[in-house]
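User: Can you fold this complex?
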Amino acid sequence: MNESRLILPEKIDRSRLLPENYLISLVYAAIDTGIYTEDEMIEMQTFAVMELEKKVHAYTRGESTSVRTELAERFMESLFYTAGVTLMLLPTPEDAVEKLKSVSFSSLCEEGLREIRRRCQAMASLATNLRAQRIPTQAVYYRYATEKLIPAFLRRYNAQFLAQENEVLPDYPLLSPVKSGLTGILFMQRYLQRLYMETQVLRIFSAAAIERLLASANPQYRDTPENILRPVLLSALGAIVAGGEGDFLCASELPRLAEVLFDRTEGEIEALLSRAVETLFSRRSIAAPKTVAYLLSAVPGIAAETAQAVKNGTLARLYPTPDGRKTAKMRFRFGQRMDDDAFSVLLFDLSRAGTFEEKNAIIRERVHSLYDLEDLLAEGIFAEDEGMALLSILNEGELAFLLKKHPALTPAEEIGMKEGEIFLSRLVARYLSSLPSGAAETVARLALHIDDAVFEE
Amino acid sequence: MEERALHPLAFAANAITAKARAELAACDEYLYTYGEGIVISEKDAALLVEHRSRVLQSYGRMEFGGGSIAALAKAFCTSPDIERSRFTEALCTLTEIFYALRNETDGRASDDELVLAMRVLFDGACRGSLELLSAVTPAQVIRVVNGDGEGHRHE
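Assistant: Here's the predicted assembly.
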């Protein structure tokens, strides 16, 4: 017999439901839509307090009815979290409200606890699979996350009393972080699922090639807490967009990539990258719809960064290549400044140059000392975008030198400084803020290691 | 429009207070029978629960249910040294003493043991004086809990 299901319009606005406080936000939203009453809420609150009393009784082994306020708060959060887990599983918020009305608070908590324990078992199983499938890499944060994080979490997770808490939190960042608001088992399960999907993507490539690429993107990758899929994905997508044949983008393909992306809107870049994601999987005949969907969810962010990088001329920094490090040689030496006469002539010639390309050609031919480049930038003869383009040809060491000598200044610190110094300080700060995440931190770390001897008298 | 509480404990604050008052009200018959007519009005019950909350707050603690107030009321309602007309006032003082001792004995005695020890000391060494009871030391309480005496009046 066929049942025709009458589809009722949803009344509760889902955007009002907070994952970190699902039950209470559901109650308020339901009251506001008239499907739950204040009296029903008061009744639920009374039963919740009875459950809390039971919990305190269990915790103190019946010896006391009072506990520290902070502990009482955490116990109550745990009760509502556990009951909320039961309700969050239902298809609609209206179904959740129906359940809230028909089932005792105690039963909700019991069901929630059973569900949490089931999820813990599912996590243990997935973590075992992940450990077996993780890629061999020297990136220690990835290794810890895939090997030890989940067992450590499960050992310390207290589902009965503190279900909402994570005593163990991951240090390894995901490509797309789990949204804020999720806590406890719900957070860790989502984190693990994403980590597993990211590992499946990494497994598409050769482990050795991944290591080369990671080292090229960041020589300190081994002990840097950064996501290793991100550079791999960017390079792989870059190769596809540039029409390359290899798994990863080569340095020689960067101009082609820049050409393809030139003058494209962010939306167009997003479309290109989305197609590249699908190509990545279809080329290898891999069917993994959830993983593809996960990668596609990261594309808008990557597209925005790409559009910015195209504008700033920093595409090479965003899209790493395995052979990238070879081309990032020091362009300038910490050599002697040119004499004043030569510098004056240089300034004159630069002022007469019509385009930035002409200026750049003059600089490439006649400027070999980083001190001279620094002086030029401080002369104020370049527009900001020209200055940004000049900085884009520098490697991390050269940038670190400029950052060391020209750190970001507060408005108060700028008072009394020369205009050129202010311009250079702001230019360096702006350029570093345009770099992909991690790159600016690398430069900052390097700057710390630069001896004050680089400062001339 | 009153701001809505989002933290679960704040969300259930009214229920916590209501439950405490209800549990105290459940002692009415006992108090009337054994306390020779002691009656705690609704107003007094609200006062006692609020007073308890303040005391607990000063120790960074919370209690659920009538708990200690009900236990103290039942334990002391038969005392000839407490005037019936000032029973609520006495309960407030007893509540303060109870939580001070609770804090200082640090889990070495259960709530019930503590209440019983207080009654023993009140009748004995404190000679029916709440002032003297407020000065008993944790060590004295633990000795009573452990059955080491010292509850008796000294001649």
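The longest helix of chain B spans residues 87-105. The beta strands of chain B are 61-63.
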